[in-house]
Request: fold
Amino acid sequence: MRHFRAGKGVVNALTFTPCGRTLHCVESKDLHAPHEAVHWLDVERGQLARTLDLREDAWRQAVSYGGDAETGNAFVSPDGRWVAVERYIGADVVLDLWHADANKWRELDLIEGSVVNSVCFDSTSSLMLFSISTDGGATHDIERVELTTFNRVPTYRDTSSSVCSLCLSASGDRLGAASFGSASVIFSSGKLVRLAMEIADERTLRFHPRGNELAIVDGDRVFLWDCQSPDAVQVPDVDDGITDLTFAPDGELWALGYTDGTVRLRTREREVARFDWGIGRVASVAFAPDGLTCAAGGENGQIVLWDVDV
Reply:
């Protein structure tokens, strides 16, 4: 078992890069506070490798556009080279992009009055998808951006409700989208399938590594949806207080973080191991690409890594 420290706040969105040698995460003062920094950790050396300060003062010194701004949520690409940040500038919400190689910010132009609701990246970190609301919330779009050219292509338009959570399958052929009270999957063919059952307003979406099922953390329940049937199947024996869910690369083992400070490993049928590493409320969990290591991020910048042997 190894302990790391990344800042002093809550460790959100913990993710291994595809090579497994770097772990990146997003820091916030508390669970619902704006994101303040992105940290990159060198797993082999056991030390902090880089930090990107997202706070307005640091951002203001690095850019020449925009007025007074407040930082919202930050989203990091799987390879850790792109960071997308919501910036509240006056009445508008813009999407600000940072690239690790250039160490520069770039503003993504949006329609005036647009509000960014969610962002996700594909597995190769070459494509970014984001949901926006326009026309005072009357229209809701999902757009994709080629990060090498910055070409933007509308992917889907809906007028029902804003999309507040996005998740792309590893193959990139299925996009999971959660709105307030509902979920849907958009296939690369353009086909849209909606889940008939209602889900809670606060939810987490995770595709199974094979891409054939979507896991939905719905409040204190977990459902698996085959992306075709009208209803999802509830996973048995799941306790209250789930904060995050992730799959091992083979999809057989899952890790769930909990508000009581535990990380629980389970299969589809049952729990197989439980750990309490003393890091407070667990905000995020991640598996290494080889599936042999699991990581959990908690409070006060604490991160723990351990070998998976179940």
